[in-house]
Fold this protein.
Amino acid sequence: MSERLVAEHRERVAARLNETDAPMRALNAAAIPPDICGPEIPASPARGAYRVFRPVEIVPGSRGTARPSGYQGPGELRPRAAIAKADVFDAMRADAYRRHEAAGGDPELFIPPFTPGQEQVGRDYRDLTERHEAGGMKCASLETIGKGGGQGEFIDAFIAEGMRLAWMVNRIGVGAAMEVRRVRPSKRGVRARGVILNRTLVDMVCLGDRSLSDVLKAHGWAAKGDTREALRKTLASILDCMRGYTLRAPQDMS
């Protein structure tokens, strides 16, 4: 084989390797936290999507005055930011912002689809459900063993969390978040099959990390702007109800 053919072969191999490595390099680059987080947080592609936030603390002796409290505390001129795993609420906020930006909206006038309080109660519901399901196995194990330190404290906490979770489930109610009869056929989609129940909506979003469009599509609805916005308003109302702000969760009365 001539030197020219060898050189061409090497170039083709190098090009293929570079093309193959490009997705991996992009993945690694996306996993590097921004500079505001400092070098102590390592790049980790397995971490998945994350969000950046700045921890705050209440100044001792003040009347609710908050100050940044990132790495190395408030003594730093610019306390470092932290990261947390992104969830469905982060994804929906980012998606809403992209739509707002694509429509030419002013970034300063962007309104997130859910308030911080609504997002937090959704996350509380998820965490309580996960802990309670895992705790049930631990509790059964302790009862079987019949001995071990801290049983009483664990069971008391398990019961307290179970009561709070049951209260939240009761606040969700058994109503319909969206009913086919209340939406014009042109808005339903060709495969619309029936109701989307409050509990189904909350569980799919908060526990299943499914977006509002995912919920609509799973029930055969067209994931259009009108139906998605109606479902967003309903979920926001249910989350407020789970916080104790309303008397009952919204439900279809038709």
